[in-house]
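Repro case for the chain-ordering regression, as requested:
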Amino acid sequence: GRPPTPPAPVPAPPPASARGGSWAAVQRERGRLVALVTSGGTQVPLEARAVRFLENFSSGRRGAASAERLVRAGYGVCFLHRARSAFPWARALPPPGPALLDALRVQPGPSVAADPDALPGLVPALLGYQRAKEAGALLPLEFTSLTEYLALLRAAARALAPFGSSVMFYLAAAVSDFYIPASEMPEHKIQSSEGPLQVMHFLLGTGPYSVPCWISLAKSVIWSEIWLLDLMC
Amino acid sequence: GRPPTPPAPVPAPPPASARGGSWAAVQRERGRLVALVTSGGTQVPLEARAVRFLENFSSGRRGAASAERLVRAGYGVCFLHRARSAFPWARALPPPGPALLDALRVQPGPSVAADPDALPGLVPALLGYQRAKEAGALLPLEFTSLTEYLALLRAAARALAPFGSSVMFYLAAAVSDFYIPASEMPEHKIQSSEGPLQVMHFLLGTGPYSVPCWISLAKSVIWSEIWLLDLMC
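-- result from build under test --
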């Protein structure tokens, strides 16, 4: 017999800047206005091999609901969100715990059906999601750390530069105004046996992310965090 | 016509100690061994009206998988877990985002069915969950903050005291070894305009939670966090 054929290598997904660029080109072809919506909270690691994190909490419900409404109003929406925070149209589903397990029923076959009484908003939500997906109106990008958030925000803003001042920036994410530079970060878990933990945070704005001029180019900037005021140049 | 009848007040759920006590009585009647499994990470607020939190990250997958296996092996499991961390049998479902929306299909009716190719483990997971639920073998209790975790751990351990040394403590949660006493906590959001943020953490073990003797009564204690060694008396 023949030797087994090795599986074809899975191509890596294109970086966010490339995905943002091709998505933006589609929005322009279709004559859509575009919005960049940020949502959810950032995470700042306290150690290089991190066990502990500083979190700015946000469920992401406001950002996810706003993204849905903007798509319904005809916008193309780049949705820059914290991994596992609220997602447009998925707000109709409870988190993967008892409420979701109780709402799913095993039927003869066997197959699984959703209980319409437990999930009354699910059908319209799925139809809304499918319409947005088929229209290519939503570009979801995920961040977890503050560093990822800032890098993606810059990449997305640059990809949307061809729209000029017609882009809407809707910055609903809860963004840390503190971070620990890599050079100051302890390598391993801070040991409690060494006594009380003293964590020094550094002001954002003194580091490499101090001057995001590209944000000030936008026509509409809606922010929920004071720090952006300081950062606009 | 008659005046509208006011809706009956919804009774508050019984506190964890009462739920734990009646659940433990059922396990004893049925001759089950019991295990207390903790899972997920704790949250420590940095302000009284908190915007920022110190998080010990844990997905909770190990604790959730262990709870499933223990129930399958005949144990009654008290599952003390971080809200929205991995939940037994719900590991077969992706988080409520694009992967879950893509796996749910609107069918004529309309109704919603799960795509068996996208969610191959869902049917056995739902059957396992339903068996555990009907048998009353799983008691899920949720925590978010470190304070809630410790209070629930104590209440659950006390509810399981009638089992004596046959209880298994399986402490898979990622628990902070630092907390900020309420008396030392700033009331409002710490302002970044006041300069670099300096956060002083206090060693757990000097506060009200220093001597949980009830843990040392258990026959099997499996821990994943060093701090418990210090706390056992």
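Ordering looks correct now. Chain B has one domain: 14-232.
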